[in-house]
Each structure stands twice: as structure tokens, then as C-alpha cells.
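call fold(seq) -> C-alpha cells
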Amino acid sequence: MMLSFTTFITEEVSHTGGIQHIEHPADMTFNGKDAAEHALKTIKGVAAGRTPISRKIDDKMSYQITKTPEGKVGVKYKGPGSHYNFSDADIDSQHGHKPYLAAPLKALLKHVHKVLPSRPGEYQGGFMSTPETRTVSAGKIGHTPNTIKYEAPLMSKEGTKLAKSKVSTVIHSELKGPERTAEPIADPSEFGSHKDVHLVSHTVGKDEANVDSETKKRVAHHLKAAKTLMQGHTYEHLAGHEIPMRTYVNSTVDSGERPTVAGYRAHLAAAHDKKIAAVKMAKTKAAKEAEKAAAMAHIDRNQAAFKRSFDIHHHLQQATNHLARGLDKTAHGGYETSIGGEKAGGEGYVAKGLKVVDREGFAKANRQRSAFLKAQKGNA
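ret:
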């Protein structure tokens, strides 16, 4: 049974206790008519400057910070099983064996309270850097929390704030209600200012969101193509394929191929073969072989519908890529960004629960870096 748009966006975009995952607009087209139309309208609204957006920041570590009614401040790593630390001793007890977590948490605990709103509250953000991890070269100061290197002229507003600070962080969401549901911080005016804390701005003003005419033209071309293909399109053939199609699309981001029905069929067949090879009992193996045969037959019967789905996905993704590149020219937040020494755009933007990311730029580089780090860990 195909996941409903409401169920999917609840399960995949916004989880209790913080933000877990934000979806690519193009991938939402695999999830039915309502999801596809939401994705198309969101990209159209952002391109026109009507839909508010925020900047995604490529941070080093996701964390949460709380200020209790009694005024106590605690920090915690966003990872599962972690709990709030209200002192360095707490941090050492929980994360002392992991200095790459303990050191940032201690810096956050020591300084971020200086800019928190005066009222009680709980927030989610990302750790960027402390002075020892920054670089100064050619009149610029920068840091590379994760994949992207952010640089600003030393004498600029952002450069000066970064150079003076003891910790750099972004705080983008507030956790509200008994279920601690994450809500984006659209107005950061409640937060204070202190030289020890460099607060990276994630909000994007209307002037920053005004993309150039060439970008609007390219986005409009692909949105028109996607909308035309969506007219009269059915989605029943996608039931049960929402997740494997996303996995397949991610694999093509790495390879640079355009997603196709044949490519997806081969990808899904390989996934089934792996499951078949993992079992030994003849009865279980036969059942999994039958599942594979049924999946292949379903794709073969619905080739035209699957092709149209991939074509819709292609055009919406191209529209998103162009839009992200256009926004990078105006909504960079005062930073020059690069990846591996090569000029690159930022991580992307968020609009209505979806991420406007150049999948041929940051997304590809980030996946490659993750694969490299995973391989290093495996060889250690």
C-alpha cells in the first residue's frame, strides 16, 4: 500500500524530539499525486520569491540545548540514547571516551547560554567550530565543519564576528510541546548577541531570495515540463516502490547517470538477489525468489508509467538544481563556499518541509565524502 503524503511527510520530515530528515522535492513525486503537487508548488513558490526559505548549514555536529525554568542550561548530542549534560563532569561521564563529541559539547555549554532567549526553551542546532579549527589565509577566515569550507573576509561583518568568537554555531529550530516537536525559528530576534558566540544566520531575507531572471527561466522550463507530465499521470504502480526508488536515485547521484526504468529494474533485481543469497532454507529462498519475480513482472507491466515517473522526477530535480544555484548567488549569508579547494555552492535551503539542494553539487560531494569516511573506518 502506498504511503499517504501526510503519513510520509510526518514520518520522514518531522519527528518527535527534533528534526530527523528533510525530503528532496523530486523524490516526493514517488509518493502520490498530493506529494508531487506539493513539491512542484513549493519549488515554484520559492522561485517566485513567495515561499519563505531558510539556509541549510553544513555543520559538524547536531546538538540540542535547553534552558530550564530555573535557568539551568544543558546540552546534549543529537544522537540516539544521549541525555542532557549540565556540567563538564556530566559530559565526561557520558562522552569522555569520545573527545570529538565531548570537546564541542563543553564549548557549547560554556558559551551558548550567553545568547539564548531570557525565557525557558529547548532548541536544536549545529556546532560549527572553535578557534583552533579555523584557518586564516589571504585576508580571509574560514572553517570546514564537514564537507563545505566557509570563508569570509577578516574585515567583513561575518569575518570579524567569527574571528572574535569562542564558539561558532547555528540554532535553527525550537522544540515545543510535550512531544518536543521541532519548529523552524523564522524570527531569531529573541536571541542575544555576544562576542564569544558566533551565531550563523540560517534565515533568508526577501532580498536574498530574489533569484536572477535566467535562473527563473530555467526553473520555469523544467516545472512546465513536469506539470505537463503530471497531468493524467497515475501513481498506483509506485506502491511499495517508494523507498527502493529513492535508494536507486541516490545511487545515480554518485554515478552521474540519469535514472531510467532499466536502471531501476537492475538495481531492484540486485537488491532482491542479495536478500535471496542471505538465506539458506529452501522454502525461504523460494519465497524470496517469488517476491523478486513479482517485482520484476510489475515493472515490466508498467514500464510506461515508471518511465513517466522518472521523467517527472528528472524535471523537478533539474528545476531544484537550478534554483539552488541561483540562490547561492544571493543567499550565501556573507560566505564564500568551497569543497576540496574548488568553488562550490552551499548545502542548500529549506522550504515547506522540503530541501532545495543542488544534487549535482553539494549532495554528490557530501555522499562521496561519507563513503570515503566509511571506507576509512572499515579499514581502521
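The first helix runs from residue 5 to 12.
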